[in-house]
Design goal:
The protein has 325 residues and is α/β, with parallel strands linked by helices. The chain folds into two domains: 134 residues, ATPase, nucleotide binding domain (Nucleotidyltransferase, domain 5, 2-Layer Sandwich), CATH 3.30.420.40; 171 residues, ATPase, nucleotide binding domain (Nucleotidyltransferase, domain 5). The chain contains 14 helices and ten strands. The strands form two sheets. Strands 3-2-1-4-5 form a five-stranded mixed β-sheet. Strand 7 and strand 8 form a beta hairpin. The chain is globular, with a radius of gyration of 21 Å.
Length: 325
């Protein structure tokens, strides 16, 4: 006879979820902040995939993490940092669908998770992944943001925009309307396409923004090999990200000293040369530092959920309407 131990008590565990345009990562920690399990699912940006699909991916990631941690849902508290949560009505729409994840739930934009990597969550968080956004908070508790408008209205400097510009450059090159670029051949070979016109099917048959954003890696490859068109696209992206961070810092009280900066998202974390271009443009305009790389925003969210639970229990306030101090 096989004995299966019962799941650990849920009130000992806390959940952090980083839900972006490409993937959803859930991490569960214990009351001491030690990681106990994680789960991975697809995009949970409800503005991109719809509310039902977003909720499905959130629960898939959370259930995987709970299984790895040896516990079961609901947990004590959870912080969900999600792309697409830009207005109070966004949070109000999503919250009823995720209440069963934890006893206390805090839903924010995913940039808040990155900002929590700075001391006191004071400074500017700059994120560039599938999408892009800058979010800041000063010592007075005043917040400001720039970017994060989505792939039609904005997301300058993001993986999606870099890939879109590369696809446009490739099309112009194929027509002869634009300069020759190695991007055309790279894109064709990467997707095993026979002729430039096949790019139409690639883009319009499957308009998955995350899959298109992944093509940005080819732009960095071409830029490092000296392709001028690719280098122009990368320079433009670096300029736009620096501009977003500076716009936020100028709207807040960072007049004295250096600007604390937290970086997040796949492009800024993994593309070192690109990251240095962004930082160089920022330093040209104002002193910055410290610069913190937040490689695991979901883990930061899980740690913050511990504090969130404590505050909620002490004050009796609804966690969904209250930011941790």
């Amino acid at each position: 006879m096989t004995f299966t131990p019962a799941p650990s008590r849920a009130d000992r565990y806390f959940l952090g979820i980083d839900g972006g345009g490409s993937k959803t990562l859930a991490i569960i920690v214990d009351a001491m902040g030690h990681e106990r399990g994680r789960g991975l699912a697809g995009s949970s940006n409800y503005a991109a995939v719809g509310i039902q699909q977003a909720v499905s991916q959130l629960f898939l990631a959370a259930e995987q993490a709970a299984q790895a941690a040896g516990c079961s849902l609901p947990l004590q508290a959870a912080w969900l940092g999600l792309a697409g949560i830009d207005r109070p009505e966004d949070s109000a729409l999503l919250l009823p669908n995720v209440q069963s994840l934890a006893g206390h739930i805090y839903v924010t934009n995913d940039a808040e998770l990155v900002l929590s990597g700075l001391e006191g969550a004071i400074g500017v968080a700059l994120i560039a992944g599938t999408g892009s956004i800058a979010l800041g908070r000063d010592k007075h508790g005043i917040s400001a943001r720039a970017g994060g408008w989505g792939h039609i209205l904005g997301d300058e400097g993001s993986g999606y925009e870099i890939a879109r510009l590369a696809l446009q450059a490739a099309a112009r090159s194929a027509d002869g309307r634009g300069e020759p670029t190695a991007l055309l051949d790279l894109l064709l070979r990467h997707r095993n396409l026979r002729k430039p016109e096949d790019l139409i099917g690639l883009v319009y048959r499957d308009e998955d923004k995350a899959r298109i954003a992944q093509l940005s890696s080819l732009v960095f490859l071409a830029a490092s090999a000296g392709d001028e068109i690719a280098r122009q696209i990368v320079r433009h992206a670096a300029h736009e990200l620096a501009l977003a961070a500076l716009t936020v810092s100028n709207a807040l009280d960072f007049r004295e000293g250096c600007l604390p900066l937290a970086l997040g998202g796949g492009l800024l974390i993994h593309q070192q040369v690109f990251r240095m271009q962004v930082l160089r443009r920022l330093r040209h305009r104002r002193p910055i530092g410290p610069v913190v790389m937040v490689e695991q925003p979901a883990l930061s969210g899980a740690h913050a959920a511990i504090k969130l639970s404590s505050i909620s229990t002490r004050t009796g306030k609804a966690a969904s309407t209250m930011a941790p101090d």
